[in-house]
Design a protein that fits this description.
Layout lengths: L8 E5 L4 H12 L3 E6 L2 H10 L3 E4 L5 H14 L6 E4 L17 H29 L2 E6 L13 H21 L4 E8 L6 H20 L9 H12 L10 E4 L5
Helix pairs in contact: 1-7, 3-4, 4-5
The structure holds nicotinamide-adenine-dinucleotide (NAD).
Nicotinamide-adenine-dinucleotide binds next to helix 1, helix 4 and helix 6.
Length: 252
């Protein structure tokens, strides 16, 4: 099977960090014209520049900003947008804490990044996909979208569960228009400073326990997720929709 995305136009959010960067590069390597987005312009800029990708800096949780950015994406792509990868999200620098100390700002920040923004992006991108009768929406969820999170962050687990639900609902709503919507649930990947700190905090024993719970006995890599995203973005996955696909070395 050869994955050929030439002629396709893709937008990947969250591209200041590991997983979305790997996805953007994989889609590009398969021939897609890729644009990237992130709220963190500084970090995303170096990546975009060095890979010749157009960068859009905005907050996906701001509906107006999301719609304006997608309009800009469409201007650059000649009106075409075939693939949306909702990669933005993460824990926004937070760590797990007791439920009584969770405040409104912390709770909302995680929902903004992981679910509110994913919906506004889907809403903004859907019309261009509907117009062509072909589209792919790929949402980077998490094992935390299926069970309690290793991070211990209540909002993260709740928001990723919501993202899995959104992926299924969008599948039903947009399927008749030739648009698929699937979630990928990655296992633990050392893709950013936060996961690096989390890994170190486990200590040698905790690290061993985590590795023993993974059937393949290794942590994931951003490329593991990128490979699945490329498949879901392709014509080969035309009849795969409304699914949440764990890419986690068998931990689930
Ligand atoms: N690393 C892991 O172990 C792991 C495991 C499961 C799922 N995930 C998910 O994979 C995705 C990518 O994770 P990662 O580990 O590569 O990096 P990450 O979670 O640190 O990166 C997320 C990116 O999203 C951007 N972002 C956050 N809020 C935004 C907003 N409101 N508007 C625009 N951009 C925003 C951030 O600036 C960041 O670059 C995330 O959704 C994360 O939740 C990661």
């Amino acid at each position: 099977m050869h994955i050929d995305l030439s002629g396709r136009s893709a937008l990947v959010t969250g591209a200041a960090q590991g997983i979305a960067q790997a996805v953007a590069l994989q889609l590009k390597a398969c021939g897609a014209a890729v644009q990237v987005a992130d709220i963190d312009g500084e970090r995303a800029a170096a990546f975009a520049r060095s890979n010749g990708l157009s960068l859009h800096v905005f907050d996906i949780a701001d509906r107006k900003a999301a719609h304006a950015a997608v309009a800009d994406v469409l201007k650059l792509s000649g009106g075409r947008l075939d693939i949306l990868v909702n990669g933005a999200g993460g824990v926004r620098g937070q760590v797990g804490q007791a439920i009584e100390s969770v405040d409104e700002a912390g709770w909302s920040a995680i929902f903004d990044a992981n679910i509110h923004g994913a919906f506004w992006m889907a809403q903004a991108c859907a019309p261009a996909m509907q117009a062509r009768g072909w589209g792919r929406m790929i949402h980077i969820a998490s094992g935390a979208g299926l069970r309690p999170s290793l991070t211990g962050i209540q909002a993260y687990t709740a928001a990723k569960h919501a993202l899995v639900g959104l992926a299924k609902q969008l599948s039903q709503d947009l399927g008749p228009h030739g648009i698929t919507s699937n979630a990928i649930a990655p296992g633990f990947i050392l893709s950013n400073p936060t996961t690096q700190r989390q890994w170190e905090a486990y200590g040698v024993d905790g690290q061993q326990r985590l590795l023993q719970s993974i059937h393949t006995r290794r942590l994931g890599e951003a490329q593991d997720i990128a490979s699945m995203a490329a498949f879901l973005a392709s014509d080969h996955a035309a009849w795969v929709t409304g699914q949440v696909i764990s890419v986690d070395g068998g931990r689930s």
